[in-house]
Amino acid sequence: MKVLVEGDFCIGDGTCSMVCPEIFAIDGDVAKTSVGAHEDVPPELEGPCREAAELCPVMAIVLMEPGDVRFPDHCGLKRLSC
Fold it and tell me: Is the pTM higher than 0.85?
């Protein structure tokens, strides 16, 4: 699983960094991830990472599973599972 934060949507609420501090941190007024866009989340952190995504008040956290296709943000779709 890969994770990214949509910086244009993130409001810096900080919930993600409280739930999964190993992956998320607040930098200024937005969340950042400790894993790169092309790196997988360590398996032992997938559960907390999913919880952080579910609790994000603006749904700024995008989880990408193998086989997911990502669309440009301007399409209004964050992901589509194949």
Answer: no
